[in-house]
Amino acid sequence: MRSREEASLKKSTLRPPSFFREGWLPRIHRRLSQVLETAKIVNFDDSSRFVLFSDLHRGNGGKADAFRPNAELFLAALQNYVRRGFTYVEVGDGDELWKGWPFEEIRHAHRRVFDLFHDLDKERRLHLILGNHDVKRRARHQEPKDGILAQEGIVFRHRLSGQQLFVVHGHQADILCDPMYFFARRAARFGYLLRDFLRKWQPPAPLEREKGKLEHRIIHWINAHSQIVICGHTHRMSFPFNGGPPYFNTGSGVFPGRITGLEIENGAIVPVQWVDHGRARYVRQQLGPHQPLR
């Protein structure tokens, strides 16, 4: 009997520390929960209209500006939503600060975008989320953009049902882009320009492609907290067509001629994309059926 107890004790002492068993997952859970607890609350109902885009990476208007090929497409889409009474939600990485451009250059290069933002902000129809590429220094929780305050997270809460939609960029589940942000941003000065250039020549990621580690980390948190999450960061659109965890991803706007996003209208959410067909022909395409939020 004693030998069994000794063997069991010896086995328990040989177990690796919890970090090597669980990795960064506990820290990621804490970060996402922290953002949820401190997020701005925005009430909505079935008459509310939202459009959500992310990862536009607005630059200084030069050749390395990933947003430049889609600038007119984005403006046409946003103006369409403004006319139709939508509220615009930018789910992080709207601007590109990792390449060393001052924000003033970005604002000057895309002043028509920021003019629209100010018009929407006056009508309380604008919400900006901070992504890792929006962060300057260590101001991760909120940051002004041309006088408009961007938040790390927002919770849309239904007035009648109390249902919550947690909107966050998603880099909080990316070890390189959150706890190691200080080093990642500096390394980006040397290597990110090349990677960003190569990405332009890759085909756009299909909807609901196989999820990577980051998506699974967020889904693990979703399952633990029974919480709908809308995020960006991966540049991969995701929409739970066939049930499953309520993980939504807006995709991105860095692939020339194509911007993906999500619309919320009449109490339902739907994936969409805007496509540039040339000669100023900008077309909205619905990528799937409306899914009731309830």
Number of helices: 8
Low-confidence stretches: 8-21, 200-209
Going by CATH, the architecture would be 4-Layer Sandwich
* Total E-strand runs: 14
For CATH, the homologous superfamily is named as Metallo-dependent phosphatases
What is the ordering of alpha helices and beta strands?
A: HHHEEHEHHEEEEEHHEEEEEE
Q: The CATH topology, please?
A: Purple Acid Phosphatase, chain A, domain 2
Average residue-wise pLDDT: 85
CATH structural class: Alpha Beta
Describe the structure.
- The chain has 294 residues and is α/β, with parallel strands linked by helices.
- It has one domain: Purple Acid Phosphatase, chain A, domain 2 (4-Layer Sandwich).
- Helices cover 32% and strands 23% of the residues.
- The chain contains eight helices and 14 strands.
- It has helices spanning 2-13, 18-22, 25-38, 71-83, 103-109, 111-122, 181-199, 213-225; strands at 40-44, 49-53, 87-91, 126-129, 142-145, 148-151, 153-158, 164-168, 228-231, 247-249, 258-265, 268-276, 282-286, 291-292.
- β11 and β12 form a beta hairpin.
Features:
294 residues, 7-stranded mixed sheet, 23% strand, alpha/beta, single chain, 14 strands, Purple Acid Phosphatase, chain A, domain 2
Sum this structure up briefly.
The protein is of the alpha/beta class and 294 residues long. The chain is 32% helix and 23% strand.
